[in-house]
Amino acid sequence: MDEIKSGVPDEGYRSGYAALLGRPNVGKSTLLNHLVGQKISITAPRPQTTRDQILGILTRPDGQLLFLDTPGVHGGYRSLNRHLLRATRGALESADLGVLVVEALLWTHDDAEALRWLQRAGIPLVAVVNKVDRIASKGRLFPYLQALAERGEFAAIIPLSARRAADVERLADALVPLLPPAPAAFPEDQVTDRNLRFMAAEIIREQIFRQLGAELPYDTAVAIESYQVEGGQQRIEATIYCRKPGQKAIILGDGGSRLRVIGSRAREALQQLTEERVWLGLWVKQKEQWSEDHHILRELGYDD
Ligand SMILES: Nc1nc2c(ncn2[C@@H]2O[C@H](COP(=O)(O)OP(=O)(O)OP(=O)(O)O)[C@@H](O)[C@H]2O)c(=O)[nH]1
Which residues form the signal peptide (predicted)? Predict the structure, then answer.
């Protein structure tokens, strides 16, 4: 019997939740996408693109990591901020492990705030020092790492580039042994627990960010009004909410040209994701106080 038992592959298997925390734009979404090997979180060169908590799943022979992405910890953002903070708090409550993501050679008030949040959770912490590829002289990194080690108690401090596969693998190697012993919670081919409705809103939002560039109205949000699957076609209707009339005009573009580009790019991405034909109807609505309208917030998935 003993012989059979020692051969059981699940022996020593680990599984648990790891919350990723860091200030906006530090590279959390890039890291998450590379960790799970698929695009599940939107990335953009401007801060604050992650509004929801995202679960990314990485299954390895030695364990299963369930990642909780959080909106970047930072101040401002009116009443929506309460919802963002609630999402962050929720992630920390269910986490077995905290991952603080910082940017090499930088330490800001928001980084300190993210660390405080993690420390309050009382879970083992790992620090990821991202974007090391940007540092020309590596000698500058060592004192930074030393200073970081003195800021908190970290099980590991890992300098890396979220864009390099080998680096991301090294991070997973360090995280799995810190998880509690447990069987895998999800099938091994699953990379997220988010449904297509959620993914559709994320993809549309990403295209808004990409098409608007510097003109980006920060205050936009995407609500999926209906999502139907009809005979091999996905039929999606979505509303883009913005706060000011000027923002609506920017999103629409001349004669609606920009909205058409946003729509067609999002449709292509959705077709790739679903491997089915996609019909996408997009509308833009301006509502001064959308982030304080509880009906809209519920449609957006921020439950009270
Ligand atoms: N050079 C370099 N750039 C990176 C690296 N990781 C991320 N970036 C870039 O940094 C920017 C922000 O990355 P995101 O992954 O969107 O950041 P985030 O922390 O999820 O941001 P929020 O969604 O605002 O919370 C993007 O332009 C990324 O391409 C890296 O290792 N090296």
Answer: none
Q: Which residues contact 169 (CB under 8 A, 6 or more apart)?
A: none
Residue whose CB lies within 8 A of the most ligand 1 atoms, among 23, 26, 141, for a mutation test: 26
CA distance 295 to 106: 39
Return d(Cα 41, Cα 194) in angstroms, integer. 10
131 annotated ligand binder: yes
**Which domains does the chain carry?**
2-178 (3.40.50.300), 196-299 (3.30.300.20)
DSSP string of 67-127? EEE-----S--TTHHHHHHHHHHHHHHH-SEEEEEEETT---HHHHHHHHHHHHHTS-EEE
Q: What share of the chain is helix, strand, coil (3-state, %, to 5)?
A: 45, 25, 35
Q: What is the whole-number distance in angstroms between the Cα of residue 182 and the centre of ligand 1?
A: 31
Ligand 1, residues 30, 34, 73: which to mutate, most atoms within 8 A of Cβ? 30
- Is the reported ipTM for this assembly greater than 0.90? yes
The set of protein residues with a Cβ atom below 6 angstroms from ligand 1 is 22, 24-30, 43-45, 47-50, 72, 130-131, 133-134, 161-163
pLDDT tens across 131-175, in order?
999 998 889 999 999 999 999 999 999 999 999 999 999 999 999
First to last CA, the chain: 52
Burial 53-62 (b: 16+ CB within 10 A, else e): bbbbbbbbee
Q: Is 59 among the annotated ligand-binding positions? A: no
**pTM for the full predicted model:** 0.69
Rounded to 10 degrees, the C-alpha dihedral 160/211/39/268 comes to: -150
